[in-house]
Amino acid sequence: MKYNRTYNFSAGPATMPEEVLEEIRDEMMNYKGSGMCVMEMSHRSKVYQQIIDEAEQDLRDLMGIPDNYKVLFIQGGATLQFSMIPMNLMKNGKAVYIETGAWSKKAIAEAKKVGEVIVGASSKDKNYTYIPDCSDLDIPEDADYVYICENETIHGVTWNKLPNTKGHVLVSDQSSMFLSKPCNVSDYGMIYGGVQKNIGPAGLAIVIVREDLIRDDLTDLPVYMQYSIHAGAGSMYNTPNCWAIYVCGKVFKYLKKLGGLEAMEKINIDKAKVFYDFLDQSKLFKGTVVPEDRSLMNIPFVTGDADLDAEVIAYTKKAGFENLKGHKSVGGLRASVYNAMPKDGVVALVDCLKKFEAEH
Ligand SMILES: *Cc1c(COP(=O)(O)O)cnc(C)c1O
Fold it and tell me: Under CATH, which number does the domain 19-258 receive?
């Protein structure tokens, strides 16, 4: 392998496309004749303005974001959005949340500090191993929005069919599936995600929000918590996460060159199939999620014996595969196979697990 890199199955921060890392390396000492590295530049400079403008435009092209949606780059990761969403979008002080795993639970806990949270459906009864039926939810007329975590990074479940919100605004956390497949933005009032799972460096959230949801009467909120402030300042009310935005922009260009999100989805389906096919025929390993709701990005699996799981983790680590330990709330193992994980990495991991199985 070039550079002697490991196959990194981390859930985030996660593996990046090598081509992007090479470009960044080449531009490190002197970005396009500016005489500076991007991390040394004023965010008010012309050259940086072009970087952020191009990043936004490329993201708009990739996702087909309609003109009546703003794209905001906000620091604080996805976690800050758990608070900003209810602070900005709860007009009547009430929202419906769907509880499907660790990340929607965290969002619910934060929203409860701001207003009334109605848990419209939950898969807690089966330790978040499926997506509950949300075709006929009981949604109060005055609920401000319906909230989902579209891909639960820890529990490995994903929404293949969006909930029926009965005309209410849909808000989605796409952190661990951002840009993994095409997305019809106009189905949502707001889409957001931390970028360190599937796009770039940690510390940045991308918020795509319909303009009419951005209120300018929230002046009692701390300035940083107001979407209108970020929108009004082109995501530069204060110094943005310049470096992360630059790297994300590189990844957007990389994805465009690859053929966009349709092409990416094909690759992701093909890649995840290698792993799920293995799990489905294995006598030792089994996936924890019902087949219909399995994530293309995060694949939790177990042997059913915690000691044996630990042995597998040590075995794969020795063979050069990193970060396969499952989250403590699920146990076992988890392979995160984001956009940048090559199919070769998945095939090699499956071969390693097959070898372990044969030996045990
Ligand atoms: C990682 C993750 C978060 C939290 O992201 P931070 O940037 O660390 O705040 C939120 N939601 C989902 C689905 C995630 O995977």
Answer: 3.40.640.10
Where are the alpha helices (H) located in 72-160, listed in sequence order? 77-89, 102-111
Indicate the angle between helix axes 343-359 and 306-318, nearest 10 degrees: 130
Q: Residues 278, 135: contact at Cβ < 8 Å? A: no
For residue 153, the CA-to-ligand 1 centroid distance in Å is: 8
Cα within 13 Å of Cα(163), Cβ side: 31
* Catalytic annotation, residues: 103, 173, 197
Q: Which of 275, 190, 278, 180 is nearest to 230 (CA)?
A: 190
Q: Is the distance from the beta carbon of residue 12 to the nearest atom of ligand 1 less than 6 Å?
A: yes
Task: Give the ligand 1 atom nearest the CA of 154.
Answer: 15
Beta bridge partners of 294: 157
Alpha-carbon gap, residue 352 to 360, rounded angstroms? 13
Cα–Cα separations (whole angstroms), residue 188 to 175, 216, 320: 15, 21, 41
Identify whether the C-beta of residue 235 lies closer than 8 Å to the C-beta of residue 52: yes
Q: Is residue 295 in contact with ligand 1, taking CB distance under 6 Å? A: no
194 lines ligand 1 (CB under 6 A): yes
**Tens digits of residue pLDDT in 13-71:** 999 999 999 999 999 999 999 999 999 999 999 999 999 999 999 999 999 999 999 99
Token output for 79: 């976690």
Where in the chain do CATH 3.90.1150.10 domains reside? 260-359
Regarding the beta carbon of 175 and ligand 1, being less than 6 Å apart is answered yes
Nearest residue to 218 (alpha-carbon basis) of 206, 230, 210: 230
Question: CATH number of the domain at 260-359, please?
Answer: 3.90.1150.10
pLDDT band, residue 329 (cuts 50/70/90): confident
Q: What is the pLDDT of residue 2?
A: 79
Q: β-strands 7-8, 321-322: how paired?
A: parallel
Measured distance CA(172)–CA(169) in Å, rounded: 10
Alpha helices of 71-177 — where are they, by DSSP H?
77-89, 102-111
Partner residues linked to 205 by β-bridges = 74, 194
Task: Tell me if the pTM is above 0.85.
Answer: yes
- Cite the residue boundaries of each domain of the chain with CATH code 3.40.640.10: 19-258
